[in-house]
Amino acid sequence: MSRTNRMEQTNPADGMSQAERGPYQWTYESIVDAIPGVTLPDWLALTVQFVLFEGLLLLLAWRYDLWGGFLAGTAAVVVATAGSALMLAIARRIRTLTTPRVYRKLLFGSSIEVVLGLLSYVGLVTYLFVYNPRQGGTSLLESVLGTEPPIPAVFLTLLVLWDVCYRIGTAWWTSVTGFWVAVRHPTDSETRARLREVDALVIGFSLLQLVLVPFVWGYDLLVFALVGHVVAVLFVSGGAVFVRTRG
Questions:
Q1: Closest Cα partner for 10 from 139, 96, 104, 70?
Q2: Which of 5, 153, 202, 244 has a C-alpha 20 to 30 A away from that of 177?
Q3: What is the pTM of this model?
């Protein structure tokens, strides 16, 4: 049985093995595969991610009476977990298509999504701990965690926020590489149609992050950053769809 046939018969719920993913993987996929002797199907890895973070969130909200920020934390956990699911869905579709090797290397093997996520995260931390407190009034961190935030709650908050920022970086990098391959590497009509489905997933991936806007409403710089990111992805991935439709 050819490698292509094996990939086509893979149960989407079970995902792909490390061998089927090939030499290039997103950092998230590498982490999932990093536990020696343990291979988790996609649905179980996603369930573990959600239950672990939501369980810790619930525990800390109960322990320190932080119920005022519980809904915002849950929204962030949902965005991060759903982002993981969409990342896996996007990767699975791309790997079953005949695309240039350089595209897969750029998308999965360059780790640029980590760099973009890190830049987003550093900007967010700078905003939370330096810029926002200097503006006067109640800071965002204070509104979520109280005036004397418990250290474990701060730790979990920053960890979940990193998860969200990583998903933002991934959405942007997937959008940019999708537009690049649409312009530089024309494909057959069937592959173009499948890649348009990927573009639609990327757009959905970014729109998902708008769930966070109500929780940062009133903090104009964060609202601008979130909405601006989504608009940029819509523009770039929409451009890729246009190029593939015209091609």
A1: 96
A2: 5
A3: 0.86
